[in-house]
Structure formats: structure tokens, C-alpha cells
Prior knowledge:
This protein is α+β, with helices and mostly antiparallel strands. The chain is built from 3 helices and 4 strands; from the N terminus they run βαββαβα.
Amino acid sequence: MLVAFSVAPSISEPDGSVHDAVAKAVRIVRESGLPNRTDAMFTTIEGDWDEVMDVIRRATDAVLEASPRASLVMKADIRPGASGELDGKLERLEQALDR
Length: 99
């Protein structure tokens, strides 16, 4: 499965930024060893249900260390038996655009 998620603290830095708390969450994702990609709005992680949800829970807990409240948004593509879709979906899209 692929899960795109965004987790952010309810309390920001004085300048309105949340990057320090978000960095703690992204570090957990990257150290998980699961395929992942982070962009300006979401982090997408690939793996089986239990391992992906465990990483998202730990990333959320890391944000909660910096704030008494957090916002979590998730979108999942659940496709049993599929793997390599973090790149595969984009490759198929680019091929379709080239036609």
C-alpha cells in the first residue's frame, strides 16, 4: 500500500513555521527503511498495512512531543500484492503523457 500523509503540530514557531516538528516526523519515516518520498505538502510511504501505520503513528507521536495537539491527514492506495508503486505509478503516468 501507499499512504500519503501530513502531520503538523497545532502550535507553530513564532514565525508560523512548523518545519522543526515536521522534520522529526520525516526523520522517523526515513529511518524506517520503507520506500518514501517527501514533497512540500505530504510524505508518501510504501509497505504493508501494519508497518506503514506503525511508522505513521510514531511520526505523529514525534510531532506531539512538540505540541499538545496535532493534525493528521492520510490518503491510502491499498493494492494487495503490488510493490514498487511509489515509482511505478509515476513511470506509467509519464509514459501516458509521452504518447
